Amino acid sequence: MRAVVFESADQPVRIADVELAPPGPGEVRVKIAAAGVCGSDLHVRRGEWSVPAPLVMGHEGSGVVVELGPGVTSLAEGDHVVLSWVAPCGRCRYCRAGHEARCQVAANVVAPGGVLQDGTSRLSLGGERIHHYLGVSSFAEEAVVPASGAIKVREDAPLDTVALVGCAVATGVGAVTNTAAVVPGSTVAVIGCGGVGLSVVQGAKLAGAERIIALDTRPEKTALAVTLGATDQISGRDLNVAEAVRDLLPDGVDYAFDAVGHQATLEAAIQILGLGGAAVAVGLPPQGTLARFDPLVLAEADQRILGSNYGSVRPAVDIPALVDRYMDGHLKLDQLVSRRATLEDAPHALEDLASGEALRTLLIPN
Questions:
Q1: Reading across the β-sheet that carries 123-125, which strands appear in turn?
Q2: Is residue 167 annotated as part of the catalytic site, yes or no?
Q3: Is 131 a catalytic residue?
């Protein structure tokens, strides 16, 4: 099959003919309908995260189940699925407590990564084994994934568009509803209006927030945020986030979401909190990034700093529910798609994302 292969940050990603072995026990093979190009893919491309290489890129996607591995009874051939890069084991103490996003088995797949849950790979190139990315590798015509990472969704949903639910939408909406548990009437600031940030905006609207301030360097992105539920927009390349937000809300906000993942943006999220506020780290930074805060202020103001991994979602429950909200018109996904492209256009799609021009490019392999 054709797949997008990353070998090192010093070389361009390339399209290669990759061999895909059949699914093993508890796994399924999925024909990919669409794969979203995400900031995490960009970190890999830039060499900002340590990953085993070579690997097949991609972790956000959707498709149709075409083959079942031994022992799989939860899915059938022909099922429409959204891929979840957290494939819960269902057995560890976090899964048993309902915190599937913290699954210990899935965490071992994510880091150090490169393999599926049994510690082996289904991918090879020129006779040599190569690596999976986050247990998914969706920048390809097909993927073999754990059955618990292929979430069945309704068949009347457009399969390409709902690929976004597999990462951007679940991460953004989940950060609001699950991690922060935003309550009605709250004030919210969202720093960064890419695919994840715009999903945070929509999550805040769904949660009943009274004020939602969207911030980004690009005015067209904050303008889009307003159409998706933001009540205020602030944009500019030389933006002082703290001053701009305090001009609107002198007492600060109840919740501040950093959907960018830079030192400066997380520090700004902490600085704009009001009494009892929570800053939520949603966007992922390069490895080794450190942020500063004043612990005395944090303690005296009864504030919190929260990390949100994959929106703290329960994939089997939350992903179908998010697809339902899209189909019911309460969640906008089409507006998050910048364009659709082929696998061969993956290098350009990554460049568009790096420039800030794109929200989500969908790669359509087949």
A1: 19-20, 123-125, 128-129
A2: yes
A3: no
Which is catalytic among the residues 59, 80, 131, 132?
59
Considering the candidates 132, 167, 186, 235, report the single residue annotated as catalytic: 167
Q: What is the predicted pLDDT for the residue at 112?
A: 75
Q: Please say if 262 is a catalytic residue.
A: no
Does 38 participate in catalysis according to the annotation? Answer: yes
Residue from 251, 35, 250 nearest 143 by CA: 35
Domain 172-309 has CATH 2.60.370.10: no
Decide if 161 contacts 82 (C-beta within 8 A). Answer: no
Q: Within a 13 Å sphere around the CA of 17, how many CA atoms are in the beta-carbon half?
A: 2
Q: Per-domain residue ranges for the chain?
A: 2-152+333-363, 172-309
Residue 272 DSSP SS3? coil
Superfamily name with CATH number, domain 2-152+333-363:
Medium-chain alcohol dehydrogenases, catalytic domain (3.90.180.10)
pTM for this prediction: 0.96
**Residue in 96, 144, 140 with CA at minimum distance from that of residue 120:** 144
Q: Which residues pair with 258 in a beta bridge?
A: 191, 281
Indicate the pairing of strand 304-307 with strand 273-281. Answer: parallel
Please write the tens of the pLDDT for every residue from 62-98: 999 999 999 999 999 999 999 999 999 999 999 999 9
